[in-house]
Amino acid sequence: MESKFQYYKRVIKNASFGKFFKVLDEAHKRSGKNKVYLFFDIINCMIRYNAGYNDYVIFEFWDLKHEQRDTYMTRFRSKKFIMFMNDHDYAHYFDNKNEFNEKFRDFIGRECLDLETATEEDIIDFFNTREKVFAKMKDLSCGIGCEKLETKNFENGDAFCEYIREKGFATIEDVIENHPDIAAIYPFSTNTMRMISLVDAKGEPHVIYAVFKMGINGRVVDNFGLHGPVDIETGEFLYPAHSGDTTAGIHYTEHPYSHTPLIGYRVPYMKEAVELVKKAALVVPQMRYVGWDVAITPNGPAIIEGNNYCAHDFWQLPGQTPGGIGIMPTIKQIIPEFEY
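The chain above was modelled as a monomer; its predicted structure follows.
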């Protein structure tokens, strides 16, 4: 695993001055503040809070005081925390879709087929016994390369087998069905919660945050859709949702597809989802910080995947962080030994 120095070196090497000044323009447009002031304030936040330049716009740092800014999980703090909490030698269980499905087979609530080991007969049998199949790439994230396939659209099992081999899919799975209350909001994707788990020094699992994610614009995955935090105890949607582009600062009080009001909506089976994630968090104890994508089916929660690299932005966004306080105080209560 690369060292902290190597990581910073790689990020600086790949940094784009064009993107930096685009962020500067966006900060000026939304804050109304002088560009010279903003330029030096962005640099200050990079140095003082280990923030990436996108963090400045994502978290609207121009509106926050030092005491507030210092409570945020910024880009480089996030990387440091991952390195502190997780043993990279065990990350493959989360990075490889097939390994994850095997390791967490008691938590995923669906049947899967590993295409790296499956025979043509296995694939055709899977095809013949299902109306819909979800296909994934081996180690891509954010829904990239995924397809929801209807078996009726293929002439036969041989044609299906040829298609998925040509596309290079690594796994095919049962399609997870949304709970009716969730499907009513947006029916075309499996709408999930990103639930953040921490395992403390005593080996006790904690769920510290849950963000409900919904598809939009006909997409079959909920990545880059709408999202907002829900109460861990009740599942209640707490604030207006953000768009998938967390730098845009766009908010939604209802879903644009169904016009379902979001604030006050309650995700079903919330207590069961928290308990499921706590149990899953102990399966690979060397990975103490994981972001789980959890679907809510008609029969209860099912884990879609676990993420070694948790997005650090969408659980502390403007309009969803009371008092402008980020997640670091919550993390320090559970992991006081972490120094940032």
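The chain has 13 helices and eleven strands.
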